[in-house]
Amino acid sequence: MGRLIYSMMTTLDGYVEDEQGDFGWGVPEDEELHRYAEEITRSVRTYLYGRRMYETMVFWETAHDLPDAPPFVVEFAKTWQAADKIVYSRTLETVSSERTRLVREFDPAAVRELKGHDGDLTVDGPELAAAALRAGLVDEVGPIVLPVVVGGGKPFLPPGLRLLLELADERRFAKGAVHLRYRVQA
């Protein structure tokens, strides 16, 4: 049985993007963190994306072809390409990556069925994650906290959500990031 994991880079004050919609602070020049992200996504069979997150992540469909792409970028691109992707959007007309399908509505029962198979799933993007969290589908919450404060923006977790969590693991990085992995208890 697979796990549904919600993990994103966040600021220390809990935002995935600032008030202007920027998340450039979330793309650190940190090879160690990048290699770790590739390592923890190897078990992912399916990525669940909202439209905006998919439009950001589809970069990985061709990143391995960049002439100056370092090996860790090529490795992550290949890992990303090997997984299935489901994009939930009412406005996106078409997808531009292999192994990707477009779904108009988030259906908790369909996600429960996906979890019943081998391999993990991730839910990526705070709005889609909020729906999955509220539906009780998320098994792990894993913020990757970066050493930056932006003072406002789009929060990693939705307001009003209550969860009981158990710390399962933590990992610190030389440039100041910390990955916290929590199992959802209730």
From TrEMBL:
Source organism of the structure: Actinomycetospora lemnae
Gene3D superfamilies assigned to the protein according to its UniProt record, in alphabetical order: Dihydrofolate Reductase, subunit A (3.40.430.10)
Domain Bacterial bifunctional deaminase-reductase C-terminal: 4-176
Protein name: Dihydrofolate reductase family protein
Pfam families, alphabetized: RibD_C
InterPro entries reported in the protein's UniProt record: DHFR-like_dom_sf, RibDG_C, Riboflavin_Biosynth_HTPR
Stretches of the chain forming a coiled coil according to its record: none
